[in-house]
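Why do we care about 3D structure at all? Because function follows from shape, and shape follows, mostly, from sequence. That is the central idea of this module. The next example makes it concrete: a single protein chain, its amino acid sequence, and then its structure expressed as tokens.
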Amino acid sequence: MNGEPLLSIGELARRTGLSVRTVRFWSDEGLVPPTGRSPAGYRLYDTAALARLALVRTLRDLGVDLATTRRVLASELTVPEVAAAHADALGLQIRTLRLRRAALRAIAARGTTQEDIDFMHRLAQLSDDQRRALVHDFIDATFGGLDANPELLAMMRSAMPDLPEDPTPEQADAWVELATLTQDPDFRAAVRRMAEYQAEQRDLGDTTGLHHALTETVRETVGAALERGVLPGSPEAAPYVDTLTARYAETFGRPDDAALRDWIAVRVETGNDPRAERYWQLLAVINGWPVPPTLTPVFAWFTEALRGR
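And the structure:
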């Protein structure tokens, strides 16, 4: 061999830090065939085999299977091709592991039955289409058969969880929490009551749809009261309430009277469920959208102020 000293399996193992058993196994598999044999029949290897062994070790450390490793050594695949394919596979594994970790956190944080554990495990395995189907099922169960606000329903149908290929731990946690929330019987019942209220109001002639501008007015007006430390039951709350009831009267074409204030209070109380707000916040985290600020304390203040008047 051009005067090149040959190495025994033991020497090859010492130089690579591998066990003799591992070197012998890879040699038996044909990944690192011996260069020759000693007079006593022992396998011997040259420096090319040493380099080949180092490549096998690297590929195996990366998790590349033996069949693919054999194709690389036979030059059927290049190392960059294998690296790219393996990176994609690792990305999928990382995504699944993050979802499993989120599911385990949810299990650890609450007392769960075997049924809950099975559900959490299933959440980590769902495809994108299956995740959307889970949310569509929630919408069907809560709004189905009712003539509720069509703009809200369309917005919910269009806002589906779109978990990225490489979700952050926060996104994985948010997905598990959202899926769990949509399966909560109490939350489903609360959303169903909201939908029934909307359908009832539409039967009475309210077809005005969503009111983003009105919600923003409430947020700004009540926010100013909260910043000034105005208590909802105090006389100082009156101007803020008057401003808002006037805006509601204008929006809905109703007189600004005691009946309107009672109607607003019921409307706000029906829709002001922190879990509904949490639903939209979780969707925002999952999809990488700006997380909407909480309005629960704003509407709680407004309701109490209305009742106080």
